Give the backbone structure.
Amino acid sequence: MGISFCLWSSAAAPAAAQLRVGIAVESPSIRTLPAVGMDRSDLTQPSLPFLSLSLSPSLSPSLSPTLSLTANPVGLPVLTYPAAAVQNPLPLPLPSALSKSVSPSASKADDVRRDVAQAVSDWKAARSAAPSAKSPAAASPSAEHPSADLDALFDGSLPASREVLARAQSLGLHDAAVALAISEAASTPDAAARLAALGVLGSKEAAHSATADDEFRFLLTRLWRKTAPSIPSAHAVDDSFGVPALKVEKDGVTYFVHGVAHGQYGPPRRGAVLSLARRVAAAGHALYSEQNLPAYYGYRTGFETLDHEASVPAVVPAAPGFTRATLLLKRAIDWAISPGSALGALAWVIAVPASPWAWILLPLLVAYAALTLTGGLPLMAWKRRRLAAGARAEGLEDIAEQYADEAENFFVAKPDLETLRGLELPQPLGATADPLSVRSRGIADAVAADAAAAGVKTAHLVVGHLHAHEVASRLAAGSGTAEPKSQIS
């Protein structure tokens, strides 16, 4: 059983080479990553006022590629990979040892460099031996495209995403080829090998990705962001709800995964979420929520998952939220405190313009009112833009682009699920052992198990928007145990 994709040419071409790369997964090594689309340093869970989830470890299995060259009568280059490393795992608790950075051993890094370099060298030789008559420039390096001579350009660092895409363009590759290489990769070394096989990453750069895993994940994320629109999404976005959802059908159950924004100082779009809860209840459908969201937004229907610090997340009745009367009372109190207090300070300034205390309190209370009315989202976006500016000043192009993109699209009251698709690596490549990723898979597994036991046919799942795509992918793939030594926990 293998996972394969084809790069179709515009017209029939003479027989081309078929590449088969076998991936053998060995024992993983753990590295602590910076935020690569998964940085949650400014995001909090509703019941935990300043929860920081910035740890994003990645497991880096080594590769042992093998290469065989066969004739392909229809002229379609085919890349085939075994699916052993893409099994769907059960969620595991995050060990405390993951908080420490552990570097891969020198011998394992040497193995990666040697194996990848050999695979790419053989592949280049095969391309040179059987160039396409239709497009010779796409088959072998040419003087007209000096960027194709990638090893000669290697300066000890990874290229920027724009450079990789320029190489793809010079080779006549469509964005879909790069997007498929990323979306079908099971690990970062696998992604490096696939991009090297396409000819957009040199053998030295592919080998360097093993020791620069942090930077390489940023590169992959930016490549995915720029090429994802060229291939169809695995999950359709249903906009018929006030809170849009990713639609997943699995084992006779239709799931709608609704992504809601998390605010630091208040629940954004509370009215839309409450309306969704009432609509689901009226339709007689099952409603599941991520832990704490029912009490946070103020509804008490359905179930919620106990996924915080739980090795095996469970489904329990939703914690009590507000009744209509108590919700109205709470809103009145909230408005009286903010922005009511700001209006009171303004009235004080107007009545007693000479009072220094009035002028001191007015800007403070106005700022507090702004935080509560916006959920603190603009403040979180500003913090992310500062990170982008710092990365840009250091010449870290892809990191700066990613942070700027997150500032614009993460911290909004109504997240765009289609945009979010490109901001984080697709599954299974994006599945790591960081707490948020582990929780996403745990939430999906718990809901799927409960829906199956209850005979549910239509289920709505309300989660934080940064969980949405991973939860949907997990629901679609189904839970299972990972292969031994797999990168996926």
